[in-house]
Amino acid sequence: MTFLVGVAALLVAMARRVDWDEVFEVIAGYPVTTLLAAGAFAACSHLVYTGYDLVGRAWTGHRLPVWKVMAVTFVSYAFTLNLGTVVGGVGLRLRLYSRFGLSTGDISRVVGLSMATNWLGYLVIAGTVFAAGVIVPPPGCEIGALALRALGAVMVLAGIAYLVVCWRSKRREWTVRGHEISLPPLRLAAMQIALSCVNWALMAAVIFVLMQGRVGYPTVLGVLLIAAVAGAAAHIPAGLGVLEAVFIALLVPPLTHGGVLGALIAYRAIYYLAPLLVACGGYLLLEAMARRDAGR
């Protein structure tokens, strides 16, 4: 609750300081080549994300065609970004996969593996960035630079530990509070981390392109990773406001409020809203295919 109040206060203060004319000028002034480059990185990121459920397909051994798995994953990811994990990551996957004949057990394992994939890659790439000292906490921050670097090292070690356990553990399944947890083989575990790291890197590349080189890529990546966990902690769909607050807190100065907000509004349009429009059509097509298959 304290965190949410702090974010709200920061947003109110931020809105008062923003030169909205500058924001609109930044958005209107983007060259077509910049928007195309950002769009290309966004498309690659969404494509890489579909690999999360393909790893789940290899793990569970279900026989749903690859293109259908990728389509379901793309649709669910676009809805997750905009409406939250419950709607997209869980709800849509459960509905669409079940409509295509997957068992509840297989769906649960695929969804669980996909979520784990996202945060395992986060551990490794964020830990690397934090341990390297790319991000310097602003004055007054509860965590200092040295503590952040130590935290980063621990995060990387946690990612490595996961690989070691997947490789060496003789016990492959556990039951925790009625939920079965099982380990994938090392090959799939390594693929999880690789896919997720690439996806986080591509997301940062979209913002970096839209900031037109005014801030170094490692810094943009680090700030995005901090914003991602802040957004997850706030439980706000799309991290609306949280993403902006973190970027402004860490990048102003050297950037201006208007410059940061203009880039992030463009980012949301390209990475969140445009895929959602495509996903809405994709969802209707998948539902129509499921009805057709059921009628045979």
Please outline what is shown here.
The protein has 296 residues and is mainly α.
Topology, pairings included?
Elements (H helix, E strand, L loop, with lengths): L1 H16 L2 H9 L3 H29 L5 H18 L2 H14 L4 H28 L13 H24 L4 E4 L2 E4 L3 H25 L6 H18 L7 H10 L5 H39 L1
Antiparallel strand pairs: 1-2
What is the tally of beta strands? 2
Mean pLDDT: 88
How are the strands of the biggest sheet laid out side by side? 1-2
Number of helices: 11
Structural class: mainly alpha
Number of domains: 1
- Runs with pLDDT <50, length 5+? none
What percent of the residues sit in helical stretches (DSSP H or I)? over 70%
Instruction: Please give the oligomerization state of what you see.
Output: single chain
How far apart are the termini? 52 Å
Q: What composes the largest sheet? A: 2 strands, antiparallel
Radius of gyration: 20 Å
